[in-house]
Write a structure and sequence with these properties.
The chain has helices at residues 19-32, 36-48, 50-59, 64-92. The protein is mainly alpha-helical.
């Protein structure tokens, strides 16, 4: 099980899923001696990319402020590149 990035409050939700998905979830939970909700949460975290972020954080020696500055800098660079690419496309149109 992944370590949470931050302390969070768990909330009860209602989801509608295919019977095969529910069955597979219950089988996985039983085989790993875990709750159904743990299996669903792990799957969602993985699908949403939380597991990648948590692995990076586990191996990083950056302080939180430094990591945030780096993330903002990289986000701005990507946005600048996208804007420049969009501008070049707009000027090529007849």
């Amino acid at each position: 099980m992944m370590v949470s990035m931050a302390i969070s409050t768990r909330r009860k939700v209602t989801l509608y899923v295919d019977e095969d998905v529910l069955r597979a979830t219950r089988v996985r939970a039983a085989r790993t001696d875990r709750r159904d909700s743990d299996i669903v949460e792990d799957a969602l975290r993985s699908y949403l990319g939380f597991d990648v972020v948590e692995r990076v954080w586990a191996h990083s020696d950056l302080e939180e402020d430094e990591a945030m500055r780096l993330a903002v800098k990289e986000t701005r660079a990507v946005r600048t590149d996208r804007a420049a690419t969009a501008g070049r496309r707009a000027t090529r149109r007849p």
